[in-house]
Amino acid sequence: MAQQEDVFKKIISHCKEYGFVFPSSDIYDGLGAVYDYGQNGVELKNNIKQYWWQSMVLLHENIVGIDAAIFMHPTTWKASGHVDAFNDPLIDNRDSKKRYRADVLIEDQLAKYDEKIDKEIAKAAKKYGDNFDEVQFRATNPRVLEHTQKRDALHERFAKALNDGNLEELRQIILDEEIVCPISGTRNWTEVRQFNLMFSTEMGSTADGASKIYLRPETAQGIFVNYLNVQKTGRMKLPFGIAQIGKAFRNEIVARQFIFRMREFEQMEMQFFVKPGTELQWFDTWKQTRMKWHQNLGFGAENYRFHDHDKLAHYANAATDIEFHMPFGFKEVEGIHSRTNFDLSQHSKYSGKKIEYFDPETNESYIPYVIETSIGVDRMFLSIMCHSYEEEQLPDGQTRTVLHLPAALAPVKLAVFPLTKKDGLPEKAQEIIRDLRFHFNCKYEEKDQIGKRYRRMDAIGCPYCVTVDQQTLQDNTVTLRDRDTMEQHRVNIADLQGIIEEKVSITTLLKNLQ
């Protein structure tokens, strides 16, 4: 784990050094758990959003998009349950004066049991080689059985405490498992308390006339309150979906792991409205559709898994997370939930408006059920950075730092270098860029020797570099270099667009989803 943590620190530092992510208000020493995206980060982020948006809105005739305001009528959050129940269970260590989420402390303890089991299996696999039978080993090895039994017993107890909302039992689990504060190393814990995560502010010109409103903690409610508007104006028939990308805000007390858990973050959410009784089939369909979207980036199926929720929200009848293997373990990047008709029913009740769908086939009116897919842009960004980062040992003994970003998501698709700054080579290089910049993001570089320029482009994940040399002026060919293989071959300038566009276009990614 220590080695993985070192890699994670290197990724954070790489993000700052190469213009991907900066601490917010950096010149004032930053603001806790708030980050800014730099010149390369914003391009990668926009490409992630484009890949998601087009996979939803372009590829599905029955999904449309909206962009709802961040400020909403305060009753929205009363209806949705956020005013009364949007809480985290928090516990303090009296010695370090640090505050933690009680559920996260216990989840980390569960992960430790999993690690112990994995270590035993890895040791045995190494010892027995091809003859190793993992299934039999899990079922018979005493140490694995002991760890599994402890893990399962803890898991059962934890799930029950969460579902019962039993804060005393959560604390008791922390004490019984002898969980210590990572900073003080002591077990001097306070009681567990609930803490509401919504930011509030005031709208209005005077203190007397101002009304209390909230910064939205999720983008979903903007979709639900617009259900009728979209359904009527778009003449939408069930099943149909509404997609949205936007900022959300949570006053996370335990914000951590860089951009994994932030106070201001961005979500990509799609709410899919279906006929009651069909929701669980649609839940399964969207589980597979979303997993395919993630795996389409080529990071390997073994780095993803579904994790079903221990605690279902009171309105849900199914919920799962897609988790990605980060340097700090498998972590959630997307949630898929069957929310029943809770949200629309609540908004109907609190607003006094009838929110129903008239089904022309059955001649009946009903409130649709909803399948939600919700993905954090920042977490998606982090998972891509973590998987792409490599310090590669080269045959000549040197090391290069390279980001193996999926070409369609890379901030810069093509870098063009003149071999020298004279003999008309810079002008020829600029001419190539002038032609290709309409098709994808290009960058011109003439400073330093070619090798150093290649390294800089590797570090920002640019998939292709072109070098213009004396031969270019004679026969209109250039050297095209591939980031991942570092292979170079000469191609005709006229063929550049066709060769590169196919590899770097989001359209190519989307076609693989069909």
Structural description of this entry:
With 514 residues, the chain is an alpha+beta fold. It folds into 3 domains: 1-72 and 210-393, Bira Bifunctional Protein, Domain 2 (BirA Bifunctional Protein, domain 2, 2-Layer Sandwich), CATH 3.30.930.10; 87-196, Herpes Virus-1 (2-Layer Sandwich), CATH 3.30.40; 395-511, 3-Layer(aba) Sandwich (Rossmann fold). The chain is globular and about 75 Å long. The mean pLDDT is 91.
Can you lay out the helices and strands and say which pair or pack?
Blueprint: H1 2-17, E1 21-23, E2 35-37, H2 39-58, E3 63-65, H3 75-79, H4 82-85, E4 87-92, E5 99-101, H5 102-128, H6 134-140, H7 142-164, H8 167-176, E6 193-196, E7 200-203, E8 211-214, H9 220-224, H10 227-233, E9 240-249, E10 264-274, H11 279-295, E11 304-308, E12 318-326, E13 329-340, H12 342-351, E14 357-359, E15 364-366, E16 369-376, H13 377-388, E17 389-393, E18 399-403, E19 414-418, H14 425-436, E20 442-444, H15 450-459, E21 464-468, H16 470-475, E22 477-482, E23 488-492, H17 493-504, H18 506-511
